[in-house]
């Protein structure tokens, strides 16, 4: 099952040489803020354009969502997003954190937690960014993208909130996640058990390093980052987060620009191809790319600059800054 593949594959993503707070890429800073949707202090990385401090210009914003067992630091510090953001120049890039939540509002939370992770991104992160930075805070100036779990999250959030984003991109997206969960619920199968750092000594060692980099009280280790509760209780709840179903509930005029890509050696490429077929059959504009590569950081370092430029161009055209 692809769901299990994602959980296993993404345990290998964290290099011990991850960038520390002392040597952040140019233009990158970390913001800590309180998120009511999840009732905890959270963080996001943000990259501001060159000349931001010396101007009064407002900028479009691209939100980058991390994958399963990743965190808010992966895009800007390990995958090159900070570099490309500065190269593009007229763009703010925000990299939020959502733990291992799949970017959904949980049907049920336990242990006193509050797990409205969709609301965390759509309301709390976006509102905090718009309140504290010079953004173009409207649909035409906002895009969202993600990798693996984040690719699913980006596509789902963009379709569930069509007034928020003019462009959405998925790289190596686990786009059939909700469909798989719906099928499991219908078959009476128990919910999946989150991958724990207790599974191996290697994962425990990585967790010790990564938790110091994340440095969010009560939300730094993988066990803490697994929401306590249940994502979906019914088939209908899962289907409400299924991009293959949501897209048919929207008018074409409401849809964002779509970008999809994946590696030829990645089992999740079939998800992108299937969604591309939906777009083709319904005459919906999109861009698609497939290239040599696996479900790993080597592939994402090659894809990030491409889709960031595509999404920036879409926003600039929507804003009337391009012919």
From TrEMBL:
It comes from the Bacteria. Transmembrane segments: none annotated. Gene3D superfamilies: alpha/beta hydrolase. GO terms for molecular function: acyltransferase activity, transferring groups other than amino-acyl groups. The keyword Cytoplasm does not apply. Residues 1-21 form the signal peptide. Keywords: Signal. PANTHER family: DIACYLGLYCEROL ACYLTRANSFERASE_MYCOLYLTRANSFERASE AG85A, ENTEROCHELIN ESTERASE-RELATED. This is Esterase.
């Amino acid at each position: 099952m692809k769901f299990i593949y994602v959980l296993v594959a993404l345990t290998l993503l964290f290099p011990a040489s991850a960038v520390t707070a002392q040597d952040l890429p140019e233009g990158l800073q970390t913001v800590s803020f309180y998120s009511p949707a999840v009732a905890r202090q959270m963080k996001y990385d943000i990259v501001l354009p060159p000349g931001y401090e010396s101007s009064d210009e407002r900028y479009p914003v691209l939100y980058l969502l991390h994958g399963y067992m990743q965190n808010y630091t992966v895009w800007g510090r390990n995958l090159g997003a900070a570099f490309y953001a500065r190269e593009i120049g007229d763009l703010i890039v925000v990299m939020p954190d959502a733990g291992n939540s799949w970017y959904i509002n949980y049907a049920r939370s336990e242990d006193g937690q509050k797990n409205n992770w969709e609301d965390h991104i759509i309301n709390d992160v976006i509102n905090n960014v718009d309140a504290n930075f010079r953004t173009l805070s409207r649909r035409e100036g906002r895009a969202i993208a993600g990798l693996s779990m984040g690719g699913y999250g980006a596509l789902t959030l963009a379709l569930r909130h069509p007034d928020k984003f003019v462009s959405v991109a998925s790289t190596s997206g686990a786009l059939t996640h909700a469909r798989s969960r719906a099928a499991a619920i219908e078959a009476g199968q128990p919910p999946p058990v989150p991958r724990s750092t207790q599974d191996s000594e290697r994962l425990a060692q990585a967790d010790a390093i990564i938790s110091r980099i994340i440095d969010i009280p009560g939300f730094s280790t993988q066990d803490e980052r697994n929401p306590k509760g249940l994502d979906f209780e019914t088939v209908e709840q899962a289907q409400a987060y299924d991009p293959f179903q949501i897209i048919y509930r929207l008018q074409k005029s409401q849809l964002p620009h779509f970008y999809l890509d994946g590696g030829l050696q990645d089992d999740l490429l079939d998800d992108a191809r299937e969604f591309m077929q939906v777009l083709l059959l319904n005459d919906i504009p999109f861009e698609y790319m497939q290239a040599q590569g696996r479900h790993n950081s080597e592939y994402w370092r090659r894809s990030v600059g491409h889709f960031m430029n595509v999404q920036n161009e879409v926003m600039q055209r929507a804003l009337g800054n391009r012919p």
